[in-house]
């Protein structure tokens, strides 16, 4: 008998995509992207849904309060539609709690959820509330764009595009890795990393700026590791990529901590697992030259490479200038994988092996 571990997450997605029906107004159907896109009376409705563990990974360190969990749920959904170019509009929720759950914590959670969605001018539209044995949290978010050119998809990258990443990446993975694994890390460094896990944010300002200025061809959020997500972009767009290790944007203090306590290259932490809720966007060189200063005035965006011909594959240029193959490991569920820290260490070691062979 085959079980889900035999098929894996992407095999499961593929089967659902094969049997799902899509109407004539569906622009981006199931399986093609993180978000669906439906055309309704000249407006494009972009939707996505995401669920989180009742105890997100970083909560086990005792630092994530109910508002932090609410933020995690909002950002997990928000990052999807922002990377697709949508202007967020509304969100529906499904909250499941045991009857013994603390009412004070419940109030703190829902108040936090309301405050965070209000911060982004997202209307909380309702949803469903259930009694269960465990806690389960899910949401479906909606946004719109007024024209098709504003939509950024995995299939939208074009040869010649520059590839940009918003803000910093690798931070959450590094933080959870160190806190889980190292007893000798200094209290100061530990507290710095703890702070980084509390309230990560998706690139709202940067994405809205690009959408309003009709900037961007390809796009997706970084949730499974930079390499794995870049491969999704390359596969759907039928292109190759060239990425420079030296351009991967990371928090300066996190880089110092990585260098102090490990032999790993700091960029390796961007190529393991996600959690920073950032986006990859591709655009023409002219568009990048036009927006790089203003978008960095409202947030941060960094050029990390180029879209190249498919025949040239997925190139990775190391700090020393050597060429190798882009590391594409990352997070995939339904694989029977080991614990987070073991999986992260496995991916870090693979990154080191790949780049040292160059």
TrEMBL record:
Pathway: Cofactor biosynthesis; thiamine diphosphate biosynthesis; thiamine diphosphate from thiamine phosphate: step 1/1. It catalyses: thiamine phosphate + ATP = thiamine diphosphate + ADP. Residues 33-136 form the PurM-like N-terminal domain. It holds the Pfam family AIRS_C. One of its GO terms (biological process) is thiamine biosynthetic process. Residues 158-312 form the PurM-like C-terminal domain. It is an enzyme of class 2 (transferase). One of its GO terms (molecular function) is thiamine-phosphate kinase activity. Reaction mechanism of ThiL seems to utilize a direct, inline transfer of the gamma-phosphate of ATP to TMP rather than a phosphorylated enzyme intermediate. HAMAP family: TMP_kinase. This is Thiamine-monophosphate kinase. It comes from Halorubrum vacuolatum (Natronobacterium vacuolatum). The gene is thiL.
């Amino acid at each position: 008998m085959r079980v889900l571990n035999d098929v894996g997450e992407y095999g499961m997605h593929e089967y659902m995509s094969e049997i799902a029906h899509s109407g004539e107004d569906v622009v981006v159907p199931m399986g093609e992207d993180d978000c669906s896109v439906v055309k309704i009376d000249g407006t494009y409705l972009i939707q996505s849904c995401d669920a989180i563990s009742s105890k997100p990974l970083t909560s086990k360190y005792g630092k994530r309060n109910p508002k932090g969990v609410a933020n995690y749920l909002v950002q997990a959904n928000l990052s999807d539609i922002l990377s697709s170019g949508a202007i967020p509009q509304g969100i529906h929720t499904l909250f499941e709690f045991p009857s013994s759950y603390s009412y004070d914590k419940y109030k703190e959670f829902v108040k936090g959820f309301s405050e965070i969605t209000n911060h982004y001018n997202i209307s909380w539209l309702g949803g469903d509330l259930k009694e269960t044995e465990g806690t389960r949290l899910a949401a479906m978010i909606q946004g719109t764009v007024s024209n098709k050119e504003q939509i950024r998809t995995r299939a939208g990258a074009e040869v010649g595009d520059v590839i940009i990443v918003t803000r910093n990446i690798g931070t959450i993975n590094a933080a959870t890795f160190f806190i889980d694994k190292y007893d000798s890390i200094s209290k100061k460094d530990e507290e710095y990393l703890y702070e980084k896990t509390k309230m990560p944010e998706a690139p709202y300002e940067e994405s809205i700026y690009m959408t309003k200025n009709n900037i961007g061809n390809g796009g997706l959020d970084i949730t499974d590791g930079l390499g794995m997500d870049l491969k999704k972009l390359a596969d759907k767009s039928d292109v190759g990529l060239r990425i420079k290790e030296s351009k991967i944007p990371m928090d300066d203090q996190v880089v110092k901590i990585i260098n102090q306590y490990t032999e790993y290259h700091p960029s390796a932490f961007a190529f393991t697992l996600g959690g920073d809720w950032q986006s990859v966007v591709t655009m023409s060189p002219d568009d990048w030259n036009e927006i790089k200063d203003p978008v960095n005035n409202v947030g941060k965006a960094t050029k990390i490479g180029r879209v190249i011909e498919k025949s040239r594959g997925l190139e990775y240029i190391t700090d020393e200038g050597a060429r190798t193959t882009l590391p594409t490991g990352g997070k995939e569920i339904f694989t029977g994988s080991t614990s987070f820290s073991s999986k992260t260490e496995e991916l870090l070691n693979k990154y080191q092996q790949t780049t040292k062979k160059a």
